[in-house]
Design brief:
2 domains; 6 helices; 36% helix; globular; disordered C terminus
């Protein structure tokens, strides 16, 4: 992946690195390579020090500020995913919710998000095949009031996966996501501390 040889201080033996999914990913879906040419170590250093570290510092600051102000912080980490399975398979999920098997997000919040998608007619799965990536497992600490949930949305719902052009489902999907956001805004934060979920109907509308 790199022009120069890597020194021993770099982690090159972890399963994720071997799969091409290290801090700087080498491949995307279906193991397709990202780069036509090898990267220099200087380029990698720029990405890590100039983008990666500042991004996570800013994200941590936002979560800490929210938790300090409200007692709760919620991180919704949205991703697109390729269609799982073949067209017409009923068991194929449209949405995959990842909470690292119940460890990064309160159950009340996950249940609410699933209910919102199901009400829109979408098929929802939890943690399979995506249980939540780096952000989910790094920031999700529900025992400390910080909840992280990964949402994978199948690309076929809103675009042609070959041409990458919007399809007829794009606008409806925008509406579904907007409804979800409004529902989350109306969430009683105390419900994330273990109480029953209640929705502020006026905010949700």
């Amino acid at each position: 992946m790199f022009v120069e040889p890597l020194s021993d201080r770099f982690n090159t033996t972890s399963p994720r690195v071997a799969a091409g999914l290290g801090t700087l990913a080498r491949v995307v879906a279906e193991n397709k390579p990202i780069y036509r040419e090898r990267l220099t170590l200087e380029d990698a250093r720029m990405r890590i020090e100039g983008i990666y570290h500042p991004y996570h510092a800013a994200l941590q600051k936002l979560l800490s500020e929210a938790a300090s102000s409200f007692g709760v912080a919620v991180l919704i980490d949205c991703h697109s995913m390729p269609r799982i399975g073949r067209h017409g398979e009923r068991a194929t999920p449209d949405i995959v919710l990842g909470d690292r098997y119940g460890t990064t997000c309160g159950a009340a919040l996950v249940d609410l998000v699933e209910t919102s998608f199901v009400a829109a007619g979408l098929r929802v799965a939890r943690n399979r095949p995506y249980a939540g990536g780096f952000c989910t497992r790094s920031y999700g600490r529900p025992q400390h009031g910080i909840h992280a949930l990964q949402i994978e949305i199948s690309r076929h719902l809103y675009m042609n996966e070959v041409t990458q052009e919007k399809n007829a489902g794009f606008e409806p999907m925008l509406g579904i996501i907007d409804t979800l956001i409004q529902t989350l805004i109306g969430l009683d934060l105390m419900s994330l501390a273990g109480g029953p979920v209640t929705i502020d109907k006026e905010a949700a509308e």
